[in-house]
Amino acid sequence: MAENEAQVNEFQEMIGTCDAMLHVFKMIRKVASTDVPVMVTGASGTGKEMVARAIHQRSNRAKGPFVPINCGAIPRELLESELFGYEKGAFSGAAATGKMGLVEQAAGGTLFLDEVGDLSLEAQAKLLRFLEHGEFYRLGSTKKCQVKTRIVSATNKDIQAMIEQGLFREDLYYRLAVIKIWVPSLNERRDDILPIARHFLVELSQKYKKNFLGIAPEAEALMKNYQWKGNIRELRNIIERHVLIEEGPLLHLNGLGLSPKNGKEKANAASPFMPLPDEGVDLAALEKHLIIEALKKAGGNSRQAAELLNMSYYAFRYKRKSIEGR
């Protein structure tokens, strides 16, 4: 079995063969057996929670609970009580028996803080204390609580920019991001689009008792060139909608609900690039050249250079580290 195939089979919950995804798998293996906090970064819908679950499932805490919380989906005034719990009468409307927080519920397991950039500064301070000392106080209580819980966080925000704006504590960032794992967007791993789509087609066909056997060629071409703003979440949504409505046996273009105008390549549009020479090109050398040129034009600023290349900052940083290691 080829090395790449073995790595993909090991991570059956995630599909990916590009260098960036193989690096994600490598990092999961390295950090899973430790208890260090991990921050997973990447655009919305790229599968950051799947990475967190993979870390948990391969850790010595796998038999313990995996407790996820979307920090952006809970009102800020309630987030602290959700995390740390509260005692009877702690605030108006508090349950008469009090409530155990998610930190306690995750004892012996993993607490996954999704959209951690949405934590209030007050909640950040209490989370920092917990990370440093393993202790906290329920709202309305003076009794110190201590639990052992691993923290994995995720964000699609630029935390460094938030730190500069005073919206995120720098000391908390260093505690949460002892290890950072960047997950590439679907547009940055186009060779994985069709394998992922086929996986969803099989899974959802079984779920809804349909008989889909594959994807029509014209639909495959569109999917591979389409600009997936919602990433894997958007891809799954479209496949599920088609499986529910259509009968198969193939997934066709007209059932996708995708406009070819939104594709990566518009029909009849003149290409802004030079034609491929007969002798071919050294793609790695070309990539290195463009990154170096973008950095020169941006005066060494990685964020501006990433914008010039129409890349996310995290993707650019990954590529830059890659070429510097060549």
What class do helices, strands and sheet pairing give? alpha/beta
* Helix amount: 40-55%
Element pattern in H and E: HHEHEHHEHEEEHHEHEHHEHHH
Reported for the largest beta sheet, the result is: 5 strands, parallel
Shape: globular
Number of helices: 14
Strand content: 5-15%
Mean pLDDT, to the nearest integer, reads 84
Low-confidence stretches: 1-8, 263-271
Please give the radius of gyration in angstroms: 23 Å
- Strand ordering within the main sheet: 2-3-6-1-7
Give the tags.
single chain; 326 residues; alpha/beta; 14 helices; 9 strands; 44% helix; disordered N terminus
Could you characterize what this model shows?
- This protein is an alpha/beta fold and 326 residues long.
- It is built from 14 helices and nine strands.
- It has helices at 3-10, 19-32, 48-57, 76-84, 102-105, 121-133, 159-164, 170-176, 193-207, 217-225, 231-245, 283-297, 302-308, 313-324, and strands at residues 38-41, 66-70, 110-114, 135-137, 144-146, 150-155, 179-182, 214-215, 250-251.
- A five-stranded parallel sheet has the order 2-3-6-1-7.
- 29% of the residues are buried.
